Amino acid sequence: MKRFHVHVGVTDVDKSIAFYSGLFGSEPSVVKTDYAKWMLDDPRINFAISAREDAVKGIEHVGLQVEDRQELEEVYGRLRAADRPVLEEGATTCCYAQSEKSWIADPDGVVWEAFLTDGDSTVYGGNPDLDRLASANAATSACCVPQMAPAKPACC
Question: How many C-beta atoms lie closer than 10 Å to residue 32's C-beta?
Answer without folding.
Answer: 14
